[in-house]
Design brief:
Among the domains are: about 5-65 and about 90-165, HUPs (Rossmann fold), CATH 3.40.50; about 180-295 and about 340-360, Argininosuccinate synthetase, chain A, domain 2. It is built from twelve helices and 14 strands. It has helices spanning about 15-30, 45-55, 65-80, 90-110, 125-135, 155-165, 240-255, 280-295, 300-315, 325-335, 365-370, 385-400, and strands spanning about 5-10, 30-40, 60-65, 115, 140-145, 180, 185-190, 220-225, 230-235, 235-240, 260-265, 270-275, 340-350, 350-360. A five-stranded parallel beta sheet has the order 3-2-1-4-5, sandwiched between helices. The longest helix has 20 residues, at about 90-110. The radius of gyration is 25 Å and the shape is elongated.
Length: about 400
C-alpha cells in the first residue's frame, strides 16, 4: 500500500464517488480533498458541497469551468474539424484533459501527493485522466479505485454505502438503465439495452433533443460569424465561446439536430456501442468546414483533412497534452488566420444544411473565374490542354507498357 497523506478526488457527489471518498480515507488513511467541475453538464454541482461536508471533508473545490472548457479545448479542437472514426465529435474525450489539469493543480495548491478518479478499468477515461495528469506532473500519484477494490457491482456498492452510513439518493420512478456523461458539447449514453448493437434506442432515452420526426415543420436559419476559425457572434450578437455553445445547443435541440448511434473502438481494445447528442457541435463542424471551403487554400485544406484523423485519435486516446498534439495545434491555428467571414445554416428535422457563406476580406472564390458565363478573359480555357497532357503523361506511359 502506497503512503498517501492527502488525495484530491474528482467528485460528482453521486454513488460511486461518494463511496470512493470513504474508501480512500479508510484504505489509505489519507485526508481527501474534493474537486467538482462544472463543464456544462446541466446538473447542479453545488449540492456536492453539502454531501462532501456531511462526510467530513474540509477542503472542497467547486469550479465553473465552462468558459475555459469552450475556449481552450472545444474551440481549438473544432478548428481541426476533429471527428473520430468518421462520426464521433469527441464530447467526452475533450473534457478529460481540463479536469485532469485542475486535479493536478489543486493537488499542488493543497499539498496533496495523489489524485483519484472514478473511471473504471474497462474504459477510455482512466487513460485520459492519467495520461493528462502525468504529462503535467510526472511525479503525481494516481489512485484508481476501480482497479483496486472488489466492489464491482451495484449491489456491492450499495452494501458498502449501507455499512458505512453513506447517504444514497434513491430517485423516484424508473431508474435510467444507461451510463451517461454530459458537458457543454454533448451527452453520452452507454450500457443497458445499448449493449445489443441491433437494438434501437428508446425515444425516451434522448434527454436533450426532440426527435427529428417531431421537430418543427418550419426550418430555423442561423448566421455565424467567424474570426480566425472561431465563432464570435451568432445572428449578429457577439458571444463568448461558452455562450455560443449554449445558444447553438438550444437551437439545435429544438430542431432534432445532433443525434448519433455508433459502435466505436476503445483505446483499451474492445468495441463499445454508444449513443450521443452533440447539438451545438454538429452545427459547428458543418459551418466551420463551410467557411474553410471559401477561405482556405486547396492544399492547406487537404493537408488539414489528412492530419485530422491523427488529431482526433490523439484526443480520443487521451494525448491532449502530448507534444505531437501541440505541434498539430500550432499548424492548425496557423491555417486559421484568414478563416474569417459568415456562414448561414438551415436547421430542419435533424439536419444541418449550409445555405450561404461569405467573407469580405479573405474569400478565395473569384466569381469572374468560376462563372459559367463569359469570364471576360479571366481564365484561358486553352491552358487546360497542356495541363491535362502533362498530368496524363505517366498514365499514357503505363498504358503503353500494358
Amino acid at each position: 500500500m502506497r503512503d498517501i497523506n492527502k488525495a484530491v478526488l474528482a467528485y460528482s457527489g453521486g454513488l460511486d464517488t461518494s463511496i470512493i471518498l470513504k474508501w480512500l480515507a479508510d484504505t489509505y488513511g489519507c485526508e481527501v480533498v474534493t474537486f467538482t467541475a462544472d463543464v456544462g453538464q446541466r446538473g447542479e454541482v453545488e449540492p456536492a458541497r453539502a454531501k462532501a461536508e456531511a462526510m467530513g471533508i474540509k477542503e472542497i473545490y467547486i469550479e465553473d469551468l465552462r468558459e475555459e472548457f469552450a475556449r481552450d479545448y472545444v474551440f481549438p479542437m473544432f478548428r481541426a474539424n476533429a471527428v473520430y472514426e468518421g462520426v464521433y465529435l469527441l464530447g467526452t474525450s475533450i473534457a478529460r484533459p481540463l479536469i485532469a489539469k485542475r486535479l493536478v493543480e489543486i493537488a499542488a495548491d493543497t499539498g496533496a501527493d495523489a489524485i483519484s478518479h472514478g473511471a473504471t478499468g474497462k474504459g477510455n477515461d482512466q487513460v485520459r485522466f492519467e495520461l493528462g495528469a502525468y504529462a503535467i506532473n510526472p511525479q503525481i500519484e494516481i489512485i484508481a479505485p476501480w482497479r483496486e477494490w472488489d466492489l464491482n457491482s451495484r449491489e456491492k456498492l450499495l452494501a458498502y454505502a449501507d455499512k458505512h452510513g453513506i447517504p444514497v439518493e434513491m430517485k423516484r420512478g424508473k431508474k435510467s438503465p444507461y451510463s451517461m456523461d454530459a458537458n457543454l458539447l454533448h451527452i453520452s449514453y452507454e450500457g443497458g439495452p445499448l449493449e445489443d448493437p441491433w437494438t434501437e434506442p428508446d425515444e425516451d432515452m434522448w434527454l436533450w433533443s426532440v426527435s427529428p420526426e417531431n421537430a418543427p415543420n418550419k426550418p430555423t436559419y442561423v448566421e455565424l460569424e467567424y474570426v480566425r476559425g472561431d465563432i464570435v457572434a451568432v445572428d449578429g450578437e457577439p458571444m463568448s465561446p461558452a455562450k455560443v455553445m449554449m445558444h447553438l445547443n438550444q437551437l439545435a435541440e429544438e430542431n432534432g439536430v445532433g443525434r448519433l448511434d455508433m459502435v466505436e473502438n476503445r483505446y483499451v481494445g474492445m468495441k463499445s456501442r454508444g449513443c450521443y447528442e452533440t447539438p451545438a457541435g454538429t452545427i459547428m463542424l458543418t459551418a466551420h468546414r463551410a467557411i474553410e471551403s471559401l477561405t482556405l487554400d486547396r492544399e492547406a485544406c487537404h493537408l488539414k483533412d489528412d492530419l485530422m484523423p491523427r488529431y482526433a485519435k490523439l484526443v480520443y486516446n487521451g494525448y491532449w497534452w502530448s507534444p505531437e498534439r501541440e505541434m498539430l495545434q500550432t499548424l492548425i491555428d496557423a491555417s486559421q488566420q484568414r478563416v474569417n467571414g459568415h456562414v448561414r445554416v438551415k436547421l430542419y428535422k435533424g439536419s444541418v444544411t449550409v445555405v450561404g457563406r461569405k467573407s469580405a476580406s479573405d474569400s478565395l472564390f473569384d466569381e469572374d473565374i468560376a462563372t459559367f458565363e463569359d469570364d471576360r478573359g479571366a481564365y484561358d480555357q486553352r491552358d487546360a490542354e497542356g495541363f491535362i497532357r502533362l498530368n496524363a503523361l505517366r498514365l499514357r506511359l503505363a498504358a503503353r507498357r500494358k
